[in-house]
Amino acid sequence: MASYFDKGKQVKNIGVLVFARVVKLLANVTKLASYGFHYAFPDKRFTIPERASPWWPSSRPSKVPRIIWQTNFTDKATLPVYLNYLFNRLMAPGFEYRFMITEAREAYIRENYSPEILAAYSRLQVGAAQADFWRVLVLQKHGGVYMDIDGHAVWPLARIVKPGMDELYITTRRGEISNYFIASKPANPHIVRIGEAILANIEEATEKNIFELTGPGVFNKVLPRDEVPTACYRTTCNQGNFTNEYFQYIDKPQGKWTRQQHRVDVVRKREAAE
Fold first, then answer.
1. Which helix (H) or strand (E) holds 35?
2. Could you say which of 39, 122, 175, 262 is the most buried, measured as most Cβ atoms within 10 Å of its Cβ?
3. What is the pLDDT of residues 159-192, one digit of tens each?
4. Which CATH number does the domain housing residue 182 bear?
């Protein structure tokens, strides 16, 4: 019996991988075509909604709320970023969609968390670090599925994040946990611990690398790998197929955080923040 189910799982994984390959091919075709589109229409942008209802609501209970969370510095997206958003909606028709820009993230934390956490968040001077902290805080309070703005599910999201799951984390090619996809129930103790570790890192302000300060490095240090469920990115969520750095930061002169963190202090000195 066990071998039967193992074989069935292998067949399913092969199906997911084949589907993911097809999606990657088609996504890259649209990305290539988008260069021509934005050459012809350089100022054309598409608005990502702050909130959108599920296309087909599900009445089936789920420990991880059926909400997709995303954030970006602007809600005015280029065609590839917007197509990425639409594809996620297609892959998660039973999920509500919630999106916040930079200013909305700060307002959310101000309304939902203590002055201490808001003060720590306000010391972060790079948008990526702010987004790292925000995603943990929003999942801690509400739960749901967080995906980076360039990330997309490679299989129907309801089949990836099953109703009985408390949480799910994604692993990279190197087997490390990443934070560009996170699924969690509200008040998840693991997410709470990650938030506390990020807060401590900001207070200490000794780490200059965003990856270790607020990003995946924190997840890999805090999470007990043998106790939390993980899934390979290949069968869960991919990045950079529909869009790329050029289309994501076309309206942001500062560029990507990987360069920005070398030009400014990621954590503002406490005196300056106050």
1. helix 2-40
2. 122
3. 999 999 999 999 999 999 999 999 999 999 999 9
4. 3.90.550
